[in-house]
Write a structure and sequence with these properties.
The protein is of the alpha/beta class. The chain is built from twelve helices and 13 strands.
């Protein structure tokens, strides 16, 4: 990843744009969504820029930009229709230690502007390292079609409730509160009764969450398959996204681990077998103890293995002995049915591979 995506706070900041034509106008259409002051420099600007200045949306200075003009800015855009002019003004910005973007010149730029799906305050940035702008726009269109236009309004209402929601215990109980709201309760309330209905729904969910018992721990035993994340079942992906703790053997691919929640505790237990032993294996009994200890704290746990279904026999025995709830999740679609306690211990012993790929 050459360009690391970040969200920059532009409140009370200043952005300098050098350009007087269509190129500058195209950049400004996005920049005007921010809270930054926009200083635009260029001789003989086009009428659209004059109109934006009359509307007080930009501060238009009708001359060539200087280093003194750029000093103290948060960002600089070289957005002239003349590429050579952009390189000259970009050098001025660098001399003032201001981050530079040169339109249509990746190598001369210190940052790039992604395609953005705007459901303020929900924003999704899409970048392709400058390699495929058309692809970025296509992905943007797909995501925009998925997200309702009123999603931003729902998020803004929820934002005002966050201080009260902070009264809930951190961790799973608070996440469950927000999950119930965003998984349907909030949007249904907005559709039926508008803002007041959403606020009432938040209050009701909050009261329910306050009296909710401590969440019980649960262990999901997931076969990770051949390592391709696109083969994972939807349930396996959801378990990874919700897990507090994820244990995995060293054959599980990094692409699959990327699906995990960033806050999750990640435990590499090794156990690749004698031919692949890295010398960092955790003893199997210690793995079981670790799983049980986290489950007893109310954590949601995913145990990822890349080998066959029978490899979970020991875990099932240990979890049943400790009275810890568990389920076995098919990692790869169409290979293994979901198995839940209490019948799991019986079913698993007679499970045969479902097809020529073998059971996961």
């Amino acid at each position: 990843m050459r360009h690391y995506p970040v969200y920059l706070d532009l409140r009370d900041a200043r952005i300098v744009v050098s350009g007087n034509g269509e190129t500058a106008l195209a950049k400004l259409r996005l920049l005007m969504k921010s809270e930054a002051r926009l200083d635009v420099y260029g001789d003989d600007p086009i009428d659209e820029l004059l109109f934006l200045a009359d509307e007080n949306k930009i501060n238009l200075i009708q001359r060539i930009v200087t280093a003194a003009d750029i000093k103290g800015a948060a960002l600089f855009y070289g957005a002239s229709d003349e590429p050579d002019e952009n390189l000259i003004t970009a050098q001025l910005a660098r001399s003032e230690n201001v981050l530079v973007n040169v339109v249509d010149n990746l190598e001369a730029s210190q940052f790039i502007t992604p395609a953005i799906v705007d459901r303020d305050p929900v924003t999704i940035a899409i970048g392709t390292e400058g390699a495929a702008p058309v692809l970025a726009r296509r992905i943007k269109a797909d995501i925009e079609a998925m997200l309702p236009s009123r999603l931003g309004l729902l998020a803004r209402i929820a934002q005002t409730f966050r201080p009260k929601a902070e009264q809930l215990p951190g961790g799973r109980r608070r996440r469950n509160f927000w999950a119930r709201f965003y998984d349907g309760a909030g949007s249904r309330a907005l559709e039926k009764g508008g803002k007041q209905a959403v606020t009432d729904t938040l209050e009701n969910l909050f009261e329910e969450a306050k009296t909710e018992k401590r969440p019980k721990g649960h262990v999901s035993l997931v076969g990770a398959g051949p390592g391709d994340p696109e083969l994972l079942t939807l349930k396996a992906r959801r378990m990874l996204d919700e897990a507090d703790v994820i244990l995995y053997d060293c054959s599980v691919s990094g692409d699959i681990l990327e699906l995990a929640r960033r806050e999750a505790i990640m435990v590499d237990i090794g156990h690749c077998g004698p031919k692949q032993d890295r010398g960092s294996n955790i003893h199997r009994d210690d793995v079981h103890e670790l799983i049980i200890r986290h489950a007893q704290k109310g954590h949601q746990i995913v145990y990822l293995k890349s080998d066959a279904i029978r490899a979970f026999d020991d875990e099932v025995e240990a979890l049943d002995a400790a009275a810890v709830a568990w389920s076995q999740i098919p990692g790869v679609a169409g290979i293994v049915p979901i198995i839940d306690t209490p019948l799991a211990a019986i079913q698993i012993s007679n499970r045969q591979p479902a097809n020529h790929l073998g059971a996961i």
